[in-house]
Structures are given as structure tokens and as C-alpha cells.
Amino acid sequence: MIIAESLKNGDAEVEQGSGQIQTSGEMIDKVNSAVTEMVNSIKTVSSNLSDSTVSAWSMTDCVEEIALVAEEAAAGGKETADSTQQSSATMEEVAAGSRQLAILAEVMNG
């Protein structure tokens, strides 16, 4: 009877151990799934960061282009101002020459 009882107890312990192994296996599967989800999340974040970096580089390029256009516009504005000053000086010379011609004309007619 002791042998039968020992076998029964052993069988119960094997069943209990099998249940614990199954539970442990299920827990390992859950941990594995959680790790897989974490890896996928990290990949998504990494991809988003890469996209953000590319966007930032594009924006930097655009800002640099705008700065160049602004510099060119400023240079064009300066050239226009210089040209206007030259035209004004030339007009003053023409007006002075006209006045001198008018004076000479009066002297000759006079």
C-alpha cells in the first residue's frame, strides 16, 4: 500500500509540475509578445525620428534658399538705389547745362 500511495503522490506531483510548466510556458509567451511589441514600437519611433530628421534638413535647405533670395533682393535694391542716384546726378548736370545754355543764349541775343 505504501508503494501505491507513493505512486499516487508522485503522480499528483507530476501533474502539479506539469501545470506549473504549462503556466510558465504561457508566461514566457506573454513576455515574448511584450518584447516583440516593444521592438515594433522602437522601430516605429526610430522611423519617425528619421522622417523628422529628413524634414528638418529640408526645412534648413529652404531657409538657406530664402536667405539667399533675400540677400539677392537686398543687393538688387542697393543697385537700384545706386542707379537712381546716378540718374539724379545726371539730371542735375543736364539741368545745370540747360541753365548755362539759357544764360549764353540771353547773352548772345542780348
Brief write-up:
The chain has 1 helix and no strands. It is an all-alpha fold and 110 residues long.
Account of the protein in words:
There is one protein chain. By secondary structure, this protein is mainly alpha-helical. It has one domain (1-84). Helices cover 98% and strands 0% of the residues. It is built from 1 helix and no strands. It is rod-shaped and about 160 Å long. The model has no long low-confidence stretch (mean pLDDT 83).
Helix and strand layout, with pairings?
Blueprint: H1 2-109
**How much strand?**
under 5%
Largest sheet: none
Average pLDDT score: 83
Order of helices and strands: H
Given as residue ranges, the uncertain stretches (5+ residues, pLDDT < 50) are none
The shape, in one word, is rod-shaped
Q: How large is the count of helical segments?
A: 1
Q: Strand pairing plus helix content: what structural class?
A: mainly alpha
Q: Tell me the distance between the termini.
A: 161 Å
Helical coverage, percent range: over 70%
Say what oligomer this is. Answer: single chain
How many β-strand stretches? 0
